[in-house]
Design goal:
With 149 residues, the protein is mainly alpha-helical. It has 7 helices and no strands.
């Protein structure tokens, strides 16, 4: 999904999140994490796309799929589980808030990237890091369609 979609969805979810936590600090951590998770898109773009790189091309729809590989290191349910366990073990409300933001980001991606209007419909287990790993992080191994709009 586009970054603006994540900013809008985080903006929508901060009110209920604040009402649950009564904390600006935890709500801010939640919101920032919900948007900042996409930093791994920039890393993939820099690593796997042809030069010269450009900001305009980075924000094109489907631009990430023009490279050969797609790692998206932070996008993985495995990491969410580990972070939830870590937040429980350390009794850290900060880690819990960040993990909630990451999880909300994945849920929005799950919905938005499966819509019929999505330019590249993803396979069901796409948001498991191990799924991408076992497919060699190759773009062509992860999408239902090969066309890019």
């Amino acid at each position: 999904m586009r970054p603006i979609d994540h900013v809008i969805s985080a903006g929508i979810y901060v009110i209920p999140y604040y009402s649950l936590t009564n904390s600006l600090k935890y709500t801010a951590l939640f919101a920032v994490a919900a948007v900042a998770m996409d930093i791994d898109h920039a890393i993939d773009y820099i690593l796997w796309n042809k030069r010269p790189l450009s900001i305009a091309r980075f924000f094109e729809r489907g631009s990430l799929l023009k490279g050969s590989y797609l790692v998206f290191f932070l996008h993985g349910y495995e990491w969410m589980l580990l972070l939830y366990i870590l937040s429980w073990w350390t009794n850290s409300p900060e880690i819990f808030a960040i993990t909630n933001g990451f999880f909300m980001h994945l849920m929005i991606d799950e919905i938005g990237n499966r819509l019929p209007s999505a330019p590249n419909r993803i396979n069901i287990p796409f948001y498991f890091f191990t799924y991408r790993l076992f497919r060699g992080f190759r773009v062509e191994n992860m999408y239902k369609t090969k066309t890019i709009t």
